[in-house]
Amino acid sequence: MAMHGSSLGLLALVLLAFPPVAARAADCGSLASPKLDWQECTKKNLMLQGSDLEGANLVGTDFSLTDLAGANVKSANLEKATLVRASLEGAHAEGASFAKIEAYRASFANIIAEGASFAGAELQRANFAGARLAGASFEKAELGRADFDKAVLTGTKFSFANLSRADLSGASFEGPAMFERAFMFLTRIEGLDLSAASGLEQAQIDLACGDTSTKLPAGLSAPTSWPCPVEHE
């Protein structure tokens, strides 16, 4: 009997430590609210404009095609979330984590995301026009053909990012930005003042597309291939 009692006690401890999966996932049916837990929930093709999700756990959540325009996701954790063709236009995302998200063709236009992390994110053809991204990190992100027209990129980190054919030409750098080992094949940098940028090397500049108004850090020079031909997609 003593052995049987010990076994029951051990089982009770296991159940307390590892509650049923259904109980842990119960928040998937809850309405949007601050600090909720939608981890790995499916929230596809929804209208969630203006939702308050500040500090929410959105790790692995599927927001494909969902409209989150104007939402508050400050300090929220969206790591590994799916945001393919989703919209966060005009959202507040200061300090949020978008690390390793999949956001092909997503719109982050006019997002306010100072200090946010997009490290390791898949952001091909994403729209960051007018975005406020001071101090944000795009380290190791995939940014092929991403659009940063009129975005504020002061102190933004692009270290080891793939910026192939990304358009930075209309962005503003009110201070240094970091480009260590960034891949800049045909990256549009026309008219940019990159004189305070760090990590830029001549090999990157030779691959990029600038013009006579592009300002480069000391020691770097414009290649004879500038300006690049206009690309037609």
TrEMBL record:
<dbReference type="InterPro" id="IPR001646">
    <property type="entry name" value="5peptide_repeat"/>
</dbReference>
<dbReference type="Pfam" id="PF00805">
    <property type="entry name" value="Pentapeptide"/>
</dbReference>
<protein>
    <submittedName>
        <fullName>Pentapeptide repeat-containing protein</fullName>
    </submittedName>
</protein>
<dbReference type="InterPro" id="IPR051082">
    <property type="entry name" value="Pentapeptide-BTB/POZ_domain"/>
</dbReference>
<feature type="signal peptide">
    <location>
        <begin position="1"/>
        <end position="25"/>
    </location>
</feature>
<keyword id="KW-0732">Signal</keyword>
